[in-house]
């Protein structure tokens, strides 16, 4: 699924959060929205998701205008910073959730759901946790479960908002590799928000540097790091 964002604007009161953004994301690409806090990354991600409506501009999936389409119709999967796993449900029930809440007509059978959940748990190498509760897992394991859960509904687009921000450095490094590996296996178009240059450099095919609601530069990690296009990008990336 390709994503096209054309002249998108979003303000909160007098504050311009997203300022005339144009962006193209190719099918299967793993893209990082990178920038300092308050630069509009999350707002842009939420506009792509359909969790936030832009004031103006167009969002297209595979060339189709979906600007006014509801989040539930867009076929997106999410992972948030604070693993929004349901505490009262087992790991199995958490991963199965998106499938079990489908309308009866499109809901897979119990056996199909079980097969899907176990294959996803195997993919994140946590099949042995199926009957446990989130509180019995480490932070890194929970976030791998959150990834499995987001993938259960076979999203056309996977969106992650500071997915590893709450974890310590070692676990974060491990999860970056997980994200990259899962992405390469499933090849779903993925956009993740981070303020961590290293994370963007290690994981992404393409980095989009944002500042004050605008895109300062975009390109492969090498392009952005080797030839920063302006003093902001140079300074921001220099502060690793
Ligand atoms: P980032 O993800 O880069 O940190 P955000 O997109 O979260 O940036 O936010 C950009 C700015 O927009 C922030 O300064 C924030 O205060 C403001 N903002 C975001 N969401 C809202 C909201 N719902 N209401 C008011 N202001 C908001």
Automatic annotation (TrEMBL):
Keywords: ATP-binding, Cell membrane, Membrane, Nucleotide-binding, Sulfate transport, Translocase, Transport. It comes from the Bacteria. GO terms for molecular function: ATP binding. Transmembrane segments: none annotated. Residues 3-237 form the ABC transporter domain. This is Sulfate ABC transporter ATP-binding protein.
